[in-house]
Amino acid sequence: MSTTLTPVLTANWDEPNSFTLDVYGEYKAAEKALDMDPDAVIQAVKDSGLRGRGGAGFPTGMKWGFIPQGDGKPHYLVVNADESEPGTCKDIPLMMANPHALVEGIIITSYAIRANHAFIYVRGEVLHVIRRLHAAVREAYEKGYLGSDIFGSGYDLELVVHSGAGAYICGEETALLDSLEGFRGQPRLKPPFPAVAGLYASPTVVNNVESIASVPSIIANGADWFAGMGTEKSKGFGIFSLSGHVTRPGQYEAPLGITLRELLDMAGGIREGHQIKFWTPGGSSTPIFTDEHLDVPLDFEAVGAKGSMLGTRALQIFDETTCVVRTVLRWTEFYAHESCGKCTPCREGTYWLKQVLKRLEQGQGTEEDLTTITDIADNILGRSFCALGDGATSPIHSSVKYFREEYLKHFEIGGCPFDPKKSTLWGEQ
Protein backbone atom coordinates (compact mmCIF):
# COMPACT_ATOMS: atom_id res chain seq x y z
CA MET A 1 0.00 0.00 0.00
CA SER A 2 2.75 2.43 0.91
CA THR A 3 4.36 2.03 -2.51
CA THR A 4 1.11 2.70 -4.40
CA LEU A 5 -0.51 5.56 -2.50
CA THR A 6 1.00 9.02 -2.91
CA PRO A 7 -0.22 11.11 0.03
CA VAL A 8 0.49 14.73 -0.82
CA LEU A 9 -2.79 16.63 -0.45
CA THR A 10 -3.97 14.04 2.09
CA ALA A 11 -0.65 13.68 3.94
CA ASN A 12 -1.74 15.49 7.09
CA TRP A 13 -5.46 14.70 7.12
CA ASP A 14 -5.14 12.45 10.17
CA GLU A 15 -3.29 15.05 12.24
CA PRO A 16 -5.15 17.04 14.89
CA ASN A 17 -5.92 20.57 13.68
CA SER A 18 -4.60 19.75 10.19
CA PHE A 19 -6.69 22.65 8.90
CA THR A 20 -4.69 25.28 10.80
CA LEU A 21 -1.73 27.28 9.57
CA ASP A 22 0.39 26.03 12.49
CA VAL A 23 0.13 22.44 11.20
CA TYR A 24 0.27 23.32 7.49
CA GLY A 25 3.35 25.48 7.83
CA GLU A 26 4.66 28.54 6.05
CA TYR A 27 3.72 29.25 2.44
CA LYS A 28 7.17 28.40 1.10
CA ALA A 29 5.91 27.46 -2.37
CA ALA A 30 4.08 30.77 -2.73
CA GLU A 31 7.17 32.66 -1.60
CA LYS A 32 9.23 30.78 -4.19
CA ALA A 33 6.68 31.43 -6.95
CA LEU A 34 6.50 35.15 -6.23
CA ASP A 35 10.25 35.31 -6.76
CA MET A 36 9.78 33.84 -10.26
CA ASP A 37 8.52 35.44 -13.45
CA PRO A 38 4.77 34.78 -13.82
CA ASP A 39 5.34 33.14 -17.21
CA ALA A 40 7.90 30.82 -15.61
CA VAL A 41 5.25 29.69 -13.12
CA ILE A 42 2.86 28.95 -15.97
CA GLN A 43 5.58 27.04 -17.80
CA ALA A 44 6.35 24.98 -14.71
CA VAL A 45 2.72 23.91 -14.45
CA LYS A 46 2.67 23.11 -18.18
CA ASP A 47 5.84 21.02 -17.82
CA SER A 48 4.34 19.12 -14.88
CA GLY A 49 1.51 17.83 -17.04
CA LEU A 50 -1.14 18.78 -14.47
CA ARG A 51 -4.60 18.36 -15.97
CA GLY A 52 -7.83 19.72 -14.55
CA ARG A 53 -9.06 17.61 -11.65
CA GLY A 54 -12.67 18.76 -11.97
CA GLY A 55 -13.62 16.21 -14.61
CA ALA A 56 -12.69 17.48 -18.06
CA GLY A 57 -8.94 16.92 -17.69
CA PHE A 58 -7.89 20.00 -19.69
CA PRO A 59 -4.18 20.90 -19.24
CA THR A 60 -4.07 23.43 -16.40
CA GLY A 61 -1.01 25.38 -17.53
CA MET A 62 -2.41 25.70 -21.03
CA LYS A 63 -5.65 27.09 -19.59
CA TRP A 64 -3.69 29.73 -17.69
CA GLY A 65 -1.78 30.59 -20.85
CA PHE A 66 -5.01 31.52 -22.66
CA ILE A 67 -5.39 34.64 -20.50
CA PRO A 68 -4.46 37.66 -22.67
CA GLN A 69 -1.72 39.86 -21.27
CA GLY A 70 -1.40 43.63 -21.58
CA ASP A 71 -5.12 43.97 -22.34
CA GLY A 72 -5.71 46.66 -19.73
CA LYS A 73 -8.50 44.64 -18.07
CA PRO A 74 -8.55 43.15 -14.56
CA HIS A 75 -7.96 39.39 -14.41
CA TYR A 76 -9.76 37.02 -12.06
CA LEU A 77 -9.27 33.57 -10.62
CA VAL A 78 -12.38 31.64 -9.61
CA VAL A 79 -12.08 28.34 -7.76
CA ASN A 80 -14.95 25.98 -8.49
CA ALA A 81 -15.75 24.43 -5.10
CA ASP A 82 -19.38 23.67 -5.96
CA GLU A 83 -18.87 19.91 -5.68
CA SER A 84 -22.26 18.39 -6.52
CA GLU A 85 -21.76 15.31 -8.68
CA PRO A 86 -23.39 12.21 -7.12
CA GLY A 87 -20.58 10.06 -5.72
CA THR A 88 -17.98 12.83 -5.81
CA CYS A 89 -16.59 13.68 -2.39
CA LYS A 90 -12.95 14.74 -2.71
CA ASP A 91 -13.00 18.55 -2.67
CA ILE A 92 -15.18 18.85 0.43
CA PRO A 93 -12.87 16.75 2.67
CA LEU A 94 -9.83 18.44 1.09
CA MET A 95 -11.13 21.88 2.08
CA MET A 96 -12.09 20.57 5.52
CA ALA A 97 -8.74 18.99 6.33
CA ASN A 98 -6.25 20.99 4.27
CA PRO A 99 -7.68 24.38 3.24
CA HIS A 100 -4.30 26.12 3.30
CA ALA A 101 -3.08 24.03 0.34
CA LEU A 102 -5.93 25.61 -1.62
CA VAL A 103 -5.22 29.14 -0.37
CA GLU A 104 -1.51 28.83 -1.18
CA GLY A 105 -2.37 27.44 -4.61
CA ILE A 106 -4.67 30.41 -5.21
CA ILE A 107 -1.84 32.85 -4.46
CA ILE A 108 0.49 31.12 -6.92
CA THR A 109 -2.15 30.81 -9.64
CA SER A 110 -3.36 34.39 -9.29
CA TYR A 111 0.21 35.67 -9.52
CA ALA A 112 0.83 33.57 -12.65
CA ILE A 113 -2.22 34.91 -14.50
CA ARG A 114 -1.70 38.49 -13.20
CA ALA A 115 -4.92 38.52 -11.17
CA ASN A 116 -5.35 40.67 -8.07
CA HIS A 117 -8.75 39.30 -7.09
CA ALA A 118 -9.67 35.67 -6.51
CA PHE A 119 -12.87 33.93 -5.44
CA ILE A 120 -13.72 30.55 -3.95
CA TYR A 121 -17.25 29.64 -5.01
CA VAL A 122 -18.32 27.02 -2.49
CA ARG A 123 -21.54 25.08 -2.14
CA GLY A 124 -23.84 26.81 0.37
CA GLU A 125 -25.03 23.63 2.14
CA VAL A 126 -21.56 22.74 3.42
CA LEU A 127 -21.54 25.34 6.18
CA HIS A 128 -18.80 23.54 8.11
CA VAL A 129 -16.50 23.80 5.06
CA ILE A 130 -17.35 27.46 4.54
CA ARG A 131 -16.34 28.18 8.14
CA ARG A 132 -13.06 26.33 7.66
CA LEU A 133 -12.31 28.32 4.51
CA HIS A 134 -13.09 31.63 6.20
CA ALA A 135 -10.80 30.67 9.09
CA ALA A 136 -7.97 29.69 6.72
CA VAL A 137 -8.31 32.89 4.70
CA ARG A 138 -8.33 34.93 7.91
CA GLU A 139 -5.15 33.20 9.11
CA ALA A 140 -3.48 33.88 5.75
CA TYR A 141 -4.40 37.57 5.90
CA GLU A 142 -3.11 37.86 9.48
CA LYS A 143 0.19 36.28 8.45
CA GLY A 144 0.57 38.62 5.47
CA TYR A 145 0.14 35.89 2.86
CA LEU A 146 -2.89 37.73 1.45
CA GLY A 147 -3.49 41.44 1.02
CA SER A 148 -0.87 44.00 0.03
CA ASP A 149 2.79 43.45 -0.84
CA ILE A 150 2.84 39.68 -0.23
CA PHE A 151 6.35 38.52 0.81
CA GLY A 152 7.59 42.01 -0.05
CA SER A 153 7.16 41.23 -3.73
CA GLY A 154 4.89 44.17 -4.48
CA TYR A 155 2.12 41.74 -5.46
CA ASP A 156 -1.36 42.33 -4.02
CA LEU A 157 -4.18 39.77 -3.83
CA GLU A 158 -7.65 39.88 -2.32
CA LEU A 159 -9.44 36.54 -1.75
CA VAL A 160 -13.20 36.21 -1.22
CA VAL A 161 -15.09 33.09 -0.11
CA HIS A 162 -18.51 33.15 -1.80
CA SER A 163 -21.36 30.80 -0.84
CA GLY A 164 -23.61 29.55 -3.62
CA ALA A 165 -27.24 28.53 -3.18
CA GLY A 166 -26.75 24.84 -3.83
CA ALA A 167 -27.54 24.39 -7.51
CA TYR A 168 -25.85 21.54 -9.38
CA ILE A 169 -25.85 23.61 -12.56
CA CYS A 170 -23.50 26.11 -10.90
CA GLY A 171 -20.75 23.51 -11.13
CA GLU A 172 -20.68 24.46 -14.83
CA GLU A 173 -18.15 27.26 -15.09
CA THR A 174 -20.22 29.87 -16.93
CA ALA A 175 -23.31 29.24 -14.77
CA LEU A 176 -21.02 29.64 -11.76
CA LEU A 177 -19.82 33.00 -13.09
CA ASP A 178 -23.40 34.20 -13.60
CA SER A 179 -24.24 33.15 -10.03
CA LEU A 180 -21.12 34.90 -8.71
CA GLU A 181 -22.23 38.10 -10.45
CA GLY A 182 -25.59 37.89 -8.71
CA PHE A 183 -27.67 36.47 -11.53
CA ARG A 184 -29.56 33.19 -11.83
CA GLY A 185 -27.08 30.39 -12.45
CA GLN A 186 -27.49 29.35 -16.08
CA PRO A 187 -24.83 28.34 -18.61
CA ARG A 188 -23.69 30.89 -21.16
CA LEU A 189 -23.33 30.24 -24.84
CA LYS A 190 -19.65 29.83 -25.77
CA PRO A 191 -17.69 31.50 -27.32
CA PRO A 192 -16.70 33.83 -25.81
CA PHE A 193 -14.91 31.63 -23.32
CA PRO A 194 -14.14 32.76 -19.75
CA ALA A 195 -10.47 33.29 -20.64
CA VAL A 196 -11.60 36.20 -22.82
CA ALA A 197 -14.89 37.32 -21.23
CA GLY A 198 -15.51 35.65 -17.90
CA LEU A 199 -16.31 37.27 -14.57
CA TYR A 200 -17.51 40.86 -15.12
CA ALA A 201 -16.68 40.39 -18.83
CA SER A 202 -12.98 40.20 -17.99
CA PRO A 203 -10.39 37.44 -18.56
CA THR A 204 -10.99 34.71 -15.97
CA VAL A 205 -9.54 31.33 -15.07
CA VAL A 206 -11.96 28.85 -13.50
CA ASN A 207 -10.23 25.87 -11.88
CA ASN A 208 -11.27 23.00 -9.63
CA VAL A 209 -10.24 22.89 -5.97
CA GLU A 210 -7.94 19.89 -6.35
CA SER A 211 -6.28 21.40 -9.43
CA ILE A 212 -5.33 24.57 -7.55
CA ALA A 213 -4.37 22.72 -4.36
CA SER A 214 -1.92 20.60 -6.37
CA VAL A 215 0.04 23.64 -7.56
CA PRO A 216 2.10 24.36 -4.39
CA SER A 217 3.62 20.86 -4.42
CA ILE A 218 4.59 21.32 -8.09
CA ILE A 219 6.35 24.61 -7.40
CA ALA A 220 7.99 23.27 -4.23
CA ASN A 221 9.19 19.94 -5.65
CA GLY A 222 9.56 20.74 -9.35
CA ALA A 223 7.65 19.84 -12.50
CA ASP A 224 9.69 16.67 -13.06
CA TRP A 225 8.71 15.35 -9.63
CA PHE A 226 5.02 15.65 -10.46
CA ALA A 227 5.44 14.38 -14.02
CA GLY A 228 7.29 11.34 -12.67
CA MET A 229 4.00 9.97 -11.34
CA GLY A 230 1.01 8.78 -13.30
CA THR A 231 1.06 7.78 -16.96
CA GLU A 232 2.56 9.28 -20.11
CA LYS A 233 -0.37 11.60 -20.84
CA SER A 234 -2.12 11.62 -17.47
CA LYS A 235 0.59 12.72 -15.09
CA GLY A 236 0.65 13.14 -11.34
CA PHE A 237 -1.57 11.95 -8.54
CA GLY A 238 -5.23 12.37 -7.71
CA ILE A 239 -7.78 11.64 -5.03
CA PHE A 240 -9.95 8.61 -5.81
CA SER A 241 -13.26 8.53 -3.90
CA LEU A 242 -14.49 4.99 -3.22
CA SER A 243 -18.09 4.69 -2.05
CA GLY A 244 -20.88 2.14 -2.06
CA HIS A 245 -20.52 -1.59 -1.46
CA VAL A 246 -16.86 -1.54 -0.48
CA THR A 247 -15.39 -2.63 2.85
CA ARG A 248 -13.48 0.59 3.58
CA PRO A 249 -14.93 3.50 1.58
CA GLY A 250 -13.00 6.74 1.59
CA GLN A 251 -10.41 8.89 -0.17
CA TYR A 252 -7.36 7.19 -1.71
CA GLU A 253 -4.69 9.50 -3.14
CA ALA A 254 -2.75 7.57 -5.77
CA PRO A 255 -1.01 8.07 -9.14
CA LEU A 256 -3.25 8.29 -12.17
CA GLY A 257 -3.23 4.95 -13.95
CA ILE A 258 -3.94 2.85 -10.88
CA THR A 259 -6.72 0.28 -11.42
CA LEU A 260 -9.90 -0.30 -9.50
CA ARG A 261 -8.68 -3.78 -8.64
CA GLU A 262 -5.65 -2.26 -6.89
CA LEU A 263 -7.78 0.32 -5.09
CA LEU A 264 -10.22 -2.36 -3.95
CA ASP A 265 -7.34 -4.41 -2.57
CA MET A 266 -6.39 -1.40 -0.43
CA ALA A 267 -10.02 -0.79 0.52
CA GLY A 268 -10.62 -4.35 1.73
CA GLY A 269 -12.53 -5.43 -1.37
CA ILE A 270 -16.28 -5.65 -1.95
CA ARG A 271 -18.32 -6.16 1.20
CA GLU A 272 -18.07 -9.69 2.48
CA GLY A 273 -20.08 -12.35 0.68
CA HIS A 274 -20.74 -10.24 -2.41
CA GLN A 275 -19.21 -9.45 -5.78
CA ILE A 276 -19.00 -6.35 -7.93
CA LYS A 277 -21.71 -5.86 -10.52
CA PHE A 278 -21.12 -2.37 -11.94
CA TRP A 279 -19.34 0.86 -11.03
CA THR A 280 -18.75 4.41 -12.16
CA PRO A 281 -15.21 5.64 -12.92
CA GLY A 282 -16.05 9.33 -12.53
CA GLY A 283 -19.41 9.83 -10.90
CA SER A 284 -22.95 9.29 -12.14
CA SER A 285 -22.45 11.38 -15.28
CA THR A 286 -19.88 8.94 -16.69
CA PRO A 287 -20.84 5.71 -18.51
CA ILE A 288 -20.86 2.77 -16.13
CA PHE A 289 -18.30 -0.05 -16.13
CA THR A 290 -18.67 -3.69 -15.07
CA ASP A 291 -16.40 -6.31 -13.53
CA GLU A 292 -14.70 -6.77 -16.91
CA HIS A 293 -13.15 -3.31 -16.48
CA LEU A 294 -11.44 -3.87 -13.12
CA ASP A 295 -7.98 -3.72 -14.68
CA VAL A 296 -8.52 -0.62 -16.84
CA PRO A 297 -5.89 2.00 -15.85
CA LEU A 298 -7.70 4.93 -14.28
CA ASP A 299 -6.31 7.70 -16.45
CA PHE A 300 -7.98 9.95 -18.98
CA GLU A 301 -6.88 8.00 -22.07
CA ALA A 302 -7.42 4.42 -20.94
CA VAL A 303 -10.86 5.06 -19.46
CA GLY A 304 -11.87 7.01 -22.57
CA ALA A 305 -10.68 4.19 -24.83
CA LYS A 306 -13.06 1.82 -23.01
CA GLY A 307 -16.03 4.08 -23.57
CA SER A 308 -16.28 6.09 -20.36
CA MET A 309 -14.64 9.13 -18.73
CA LEU A 310 -12.34 9.49 -15.74
CA GLY A 311 -14.32 12.52 -14.61
CA THR A 312 -13.93 13.34 -10.94
CA ARG A 313 -12.64 9.84 -10.06
CA ALA A 314 -15.81 9.18 -8.04
CA LEU A 315 -15.78 5.39 -7.92
CA GLN A 316 -19.27 4.29 -6.92
CA ILE A 317 -19.25 0.53 -6.36
CA PHE A 318 -22.40 -1.60 -6.65
CA ASP A 319 -22.67 -5.32 -5.92
CA GLU A 320 -25.03 -7.97 -7.30
CA THR A 321 -27.87 -6.97 -4.96
CA THR A 322 -28.33 -3.64 -6.78
CA CYS A 323 -30.96 -3.10 -9.45
CA VAL A 324 -29.38 -1.28 -12.40
CA VAL A 325 -32.72 0.11 -13.58
CA ARG A 326 -33.52 1.56 -10.17
CA THR A 327 -30.05 3.09 -9.90
CA VAL A 328 -30.27 4.73 -13.32
CA LEU A 329 -33.75 6.01 -12.46
CA ARG A 330 -32.45 7.67 -9.28
CA TRP A 331 -29.61 9.32 -11.18
CA THR A 332 -32.03 10.49 -13.89
CA GLU A 333 -34.38 11.95 -11.29
CA PHE A 334 -31.44 13.95 -9.98
CA TYR A 335 -30.55 15.35 -13.41
CA ALA A 336 -34.19 16.17 -14.22
CA HIS A 337 -34.47 18.03 -10.92
CA GLU A 338 -31.18 19.92 -11.37
CA SER A 339 -31.68 20.91 -15.01
CA CYS A 340 -31.80 24.70 -15.13
CA GLY A 341 -34.40 24.58 -17.90
CA LYS A 342 -32.60 26.96 -20.22
CA CYS A 343 -32.35 24.61 -23.20
CA THR A 344 -35.15 22.40 -24.50
CA PRO A 345 -33.24 19.12 -25.11
CA CYS A 346 -32.11 18.90 -21.49
CA ARG A 347 -35.26 20.31 -19.88
CA GLU A 348 -37.70 18.10 -21.80
CA GLY A 349 -35.40 15.15 -22.38
CA THR A 350 -34.50 14.52 -18.74
CA TYR A 351 -38.18 14.81 -17.78
CA TRP A 352 -39.26 12.17 -20.28
CA LEU A 353 -36.33 9.90 -19.45
CA LYS A 354 -37.54 9.96 -15.85
CA GLN A 355 -41.13 9.11 -16.83
CA VAL A 356 -40.19 6.16 -19.05
CA LEU A 357 -37.66 4.80 -16.55
CA LYS A 358 -40.28 4.90 -13.79
CA ARG A 359 -42.55 2.76 -15.93
CA LEU A 360 -39.72 0.37 -16.74
CA GLU A 361 -38.66 0.04 -13.11
CA GLN A 362 -42.22 -0.81 -12.08
CA GLY A 363 -42.38 -3.56 -14.70
CA GLN A 364 -44.96 -1.77 -16.82
CA GLY A 365 -42.80 -1.05 -19.84
CA THR A 366 -42.10 -2.83 -23.10
CA GLU A 367 -38.98 -3.61 -25.06
CA GLU A 368 -39.83 -0.65 -27.30
CA ASP A 369 -39.26 1.63 -24.30
CA LEU A 370 -35.56 0.76 -24.42
CA THR A 371 -35.43 2.19 -27.93
CA THR A 372 -37.37 5.22 -26.70
CA ILE A 373 -34.96 6.09 -23.86
CA THR A 374 -31.89 5.65 -26.07
CA ASP A 375 -33.51 7.82 -28.75
CA ILE A 376 -34.27 10.52 -26.17
CA ALA A 377 -30.70 10.31 -24.92
CA ASP A 378 -29.39 10.64 -28.49
CA ASN A 379 -31.43 13.82 -28.91
CA ILE A 380 -29.99 15.32 -25.73
CA LEU A 381 -26.36 14.37 -26.31
CA GLY A 382 -24.39 17.21 -27.88
CA ARG A 383 -27.46 19.44 -28.17
CA SER A 384 -27.43 21.16 -24.78
CA PHE A 385 -25.82 24.40 -23.60
CA CYS A 386 -23.68 22.56 -21.08
CA ALA A 387 -22.53 19.10 -20.04
CA LEU A 388 -25.44 18.41 -17.69
CA GLY A 389 -27.51 17.06 -20.55
CA ASP A 390 -24.62 14.98 -21.86
CA GLY A 391 -23.97 13.57 -18.40
CA ALA A 392 -27.60 12.57 -17.99
CA THR A 393 -27.38 10.37 -21.08
CA SER A 394 -24.28 8.43 -19.96
CA PRO A 395 -25.97 6.00 -17.54
CA ILE A 396 -28.81 5.48 -20.03
CA HIS A 397 -26.67 4.32 -22.94
CA SER A 398 -24.20 2.33 -20.87
CA SER A 399 -26.78 0.54 -18.71
CA VAL A 400 -28.78 -0.57 -21.74
CA LYS A 401 -25.54 -1.72 -23.37
CA TYR A 402 -24.39 -3.89 -20.45
CA PHE A 403 -27.66 -4.82 -18.74
CA ARG A 404 -30.31 -5.01 -21.43
CA GLU A 405 -31.53 -8.37 -20.09
CA GLU A 406 -32.13 -6.85 -16.68
CA TYR A 407 -34.33 -4.17 -18.22
CA LEU A 408 -36.28 -6.87 -20.07
CA LYS A 409 -36.66 -8.94 -16.92
CA HIS A 410 -38.56 -6.12 -15.23
CA PHE A 411 -41.54 -6.25 -17.55
CA GLU A 412 -41.30 -10.02 -17.99
CA ILE A 413 -42.11 -10.51 -14.29
CA GLY A 414 -44.13 -7.30 -13.90
CA GLY A 415 -41.79 -5.60 -11.47
CA CYS A 416 -38.27 -5.38 -10.16
CA PRO A 417 -36.53 -8.77 -9.92
CA PHE A 418 -34.69 -7.45 -6.86
CA ASP A 419 -37.97 -6.73 -5.04
CA PRO A 420 -38.55 -9.47 -2.41
CA LYS A 421 -42.23 -9.49 -3.37
CA LYS A 422 -41.28 -10.46 -6.93
CA SER A 423 -38.12 -12.49 -6.45
CA THR A 424 -35.01 -12.54 -4.32
CA LEU A 425 -32.77 -14.25 -6.82
CA TRP A 426 -32.21 -13.62 -10.51
CA GLY A 427 -34.48 -15.89 -12.58
CA GLU A 428 -37.04 -16.69 -9.86
CA GLN A 429 -40.68 -15.70 -10.33
TrEMBL record:
Please list the residue ranges annotated as the NADH-ubiquinone oxidoreductase 51kDa subunit iron-sulphur binding domain: 325-370
Q: Which organism is it from?
A: Nonomuraea turkmeniaca
Q: Which residues form a coiled coil?
A: none
Q: Does the keyword Metal-binding apply?
A: yes
Ordered alphabetically, the record's keywords are:
4Fe-4S, Flavoprotein, FMN, Iron, Iron-sulfur, Metal-binding, NAD, Oxidoreductase, Quinone, Translocase
Homology family:
Belongs to the complex I 51 kDa subunit family.
Designated name of the protein: NADH-quinone oxidoreductase subunit F
Known EC number: 7.1.1.-
Identify the taxonomic lineage of the organism of origin.
Bacteria, Bacillati, Actinomycetota, Actinomycetes, Streptosporangiales
Q: What does this protein do?
A: NDH-1 shuttles electrons from NADH, via FMN and iron-sulfur (Fe-S) centers, to quinones in the respiratory chain.
| Entry GO MF terms | 4 iron, 4 sulfur cluster binding; FMN binding; metal ion binding; NAD binding; NADH dehydrogenase (ubiquinone) activity; oxidoreductase activity; quinone binding
Q: Does the keyword Oxidoreductase apply?
A: yes
What reaction does this catalyse? a quinone + NADH + 5 H(+)(in) = a quinol + NAD(+) + 4 H(+)(out)
Q: Which cofactor does it need?
A: [4Fe-4S] cluster; FMN
